[in-house]
């Protein structure tokens, strides 16, 4: 009885404190209190519910039977919109706070919301080496199922809550992308409902124009209702080598060389300052030295980026064997390094052992509860950006990031960019090695001003024929945006498929200049 009374007294005191200080004050200045007491338990409940639901649906094989009916329902909604005069643009009915992007999509309030309840894995075909999934399937669902069957995706982006639809309509990357490309490059077919309510399937051989135009289109060509994705045999562990490197020239040289070696299944770099980094290379294996086994995904383990930093501090190389699924989601518990700004003591051993099993809070719940004041503070004093630049420009790009925003750590992830039609492709006619430079955190540059600093960074990326990931805040004008992206195929298809009156142009959907 006494613990219950103590808990009740603590809860009462907390509510009294909130009453005195005001909820907005607590959410802004002491956000960790709200996150620890409310969002972590809620996030855990969400995870358990969706995990159990996905397992039951797959075991009962009910998803394939229900899928066709759900697609027909989407077609019906689109046709009803058309019959009612097509008065506004359409968009998915999924609430904006549920997305991983920190951007708040105000268009949801003014556009016709088409409800798309498609969140199941439909089929795993090991003979064809294909998995067929609905668009709201998450990477957490995919890894849980596929690794249990001995398979995996060639490119499996990091965070558990990333959805297949978001990774196709936007983009996705992982440390295996130097071999396989971006997430779109492991997809073999898309199924969509178009602006007139018709259903279409597209592949590189069938409706190929649409197949190549869909990635990065942000849902402005049609509603994705299913995708077929390549799978490859999985192994139990990743044999991961850690090598601290000092000096920017040495870092860029080492990172480039490792990215060009086909025997590396995984390549990743964490840059802790302008001239200090740890380069990691890994291969999948079924054998492990038990003395070097590191189950980094266990809740009580140090956050991965902090663990990696120890190799830099001790200036020693290292070799570890990490269970495959835990490797894929190595940055999930700390949301890369964003969680340290929300729960400053989150990597403390005491916190990890007592509460680490509830970490991380859902990004969607963080968005839902942040409020307008906090959102504006984040917008002005926080950076979340991924810029994709040619590998040959890595040194110049790191200097630019350092001078314009000065955010560390910086994530380096190499990828091969094939020469294919669509919004994103190399400048020449051959595939080219690129690198994703990810900056997440509070800028340390003096007199940081979000709009001017980001426009300066965007200008550099355009100048080297690079690309900005579209989940992030984008400050480009319309002319600058279409200088960065090749809109020739995209615009041709929008006209052919009657999208002008059905969906906004991708620029109008994601760029700040179009939404103010």
Write up what this structure looks like.
One of its GO terms (biological process) is cholesterol metabolic process. The chain crosses the membrane at residues 32-52. The chain is of the alpha+beta class and 516 residues long. Among the domains are: 62-233, 2-Layer Sandwich (Uridine Diphospho-n-acetylenolpyruvylglucosamine Reductase, domain 3); 237-372, no CATH class. The protein has helices at residues 2-21, 23-29, 31-60, 62-83, 139-149, 164-169, 177-180, 208-213, 248-259, 304-314, 324-328, 339-342, 349-355, 363-368, 371-381, 394-404, 450-463, 478-484, 488-496, 506-510, 512-515; strands at residues 90-92, 112-114, 121-125, 130-133, 151-152, 187-193, 199-202, 223-230, 232-233, 237-246, 266-273, 276-285, 318-323, 383-390, 410-417, 432-441, 467-468. An 8-stranded antiparallel beta sheet has the order 13-10-12-11-15-16-14-17, sandwiched between helices. Helix 2 crosses helix 3 and helix 16 packs antiparallel against helix 17 (450-463).
